[in-house]
Design brief:
Dihydrodipicolinate Reductase, domain 2; six-stranded parallel beta sheet; about 450 residues; Alpha-Beta Plaits; alpha/beta; Rossmann fold; 14 helices; 3 domains
Length: about 450
Amino acid sequence: MKPVNIGLLGLGTVGGGTARVLASNAAEIARRAGREIQVIHAAARGLGTEKPQGTEHALLTEDAFEVVNNPDVDIVVELIGGDSPARELVLQAIANGKHVVTANKALIAKHGNEIFAAAQAKGVVVAFEAAVAGGIPIIKAIREGLSANKIQWIAGIINGTGNFILTEMRDKGRDFADVLAEAQALGYAEADPTFDVEGIDAAHKLCILSSIAFGVPLQFDKVYTEGISKISQEDVTFASQLGYRIKHLGITKATAKGIEMRVHPTLIPEKRLIANVDGVMNAVLIMADRLGPSLYYGAGAGAYPTASAVVADIVDVTRSLTTDPDNRVPHLAFQPDKINDTPILPMDDVETAYYLRMNADDKPGVMADITRIMGESMISIEAILQKEPAQGESTATIIMLTQRIREAQMNHALAAIQKLKSISGQVTRIRVESLSSN
């Protein structure tokens, strides 16, 4: 049978890893795919005289459109990243009748609806397993393995950089800025770490997970996003004393009022398996109505873990080349005409519990003022922890855990507490989730 020809866009960490995996495991991959898979054309900037491993027999160019327009290429593998020119390249590949594999979460989250509509019209496949959680086959698990279930909620550690920072803060008592600098030195974080530490990267991925879990269009602009840059060593320590760990979670949940999509620091009970996922590893916890909870754990980034998912997509696409387009696995798990318009819940309507930390004057009546405000906002307090002032200080640290309430109620209460003359500085608020099966 004729080999499947790959056009590879990008020969960086993931692109280079993909080329090496396709070459080094060629025989095993061919056994699984049913035919040989080979890179015949690749594009990258700053090409030297020596061809990268896995591209020895390929034509190399700095013009990615040459690859996309090559009539001999069957599958275009986009590993450039970012919005542009990735979007234009992918749409051109689809227009040329080529299948596409991508690891580009921003591309799918922001332009996936347009891309999948174009692919559907042209009868080609766009595969994107590597766009979420690196080498963990989470897209396939939700889209195919759990297709008998109604997904109730998903909670994931889907950014390794943030998880590394929070792990180091907890285990070694280090400050955020100190650990971030090390993460940058180790190559876990970019020189501009905004996408990682402010939750944008995780929001791209959560948008995709939510869409395939609940059969709604991709709506990245509706993901509530909050980063970890304001998490202090104090909060990490207090959370531990209360039996919790702080993780930067992406959470999506189906409720009677709509679908939640939110990324933020979260206290979760330390006994939960996902609370013990440390370092740069990723994990996704899924609650399904028939299976119950299931946890998917593995490397969320890196050359070979991500290449593993990219090559798996290439094999899947190769297997489907002779399949009737109407009988392929839908891009977003549900048949295109069954994607619904369930509303995305605004953050004000989300219900969760809260951890609050505030500095208050150490004098009679202060606690009564705070609890009065909480009561007026119909907020029940689960636990209170008060740290006496250090010698020579006049303010005490008060920690509160609340029961589950609407975000709008908490916003109202915090605004009133913040106005108290006895409160100094900003009140810290971190959401709390039990992640139980109830």
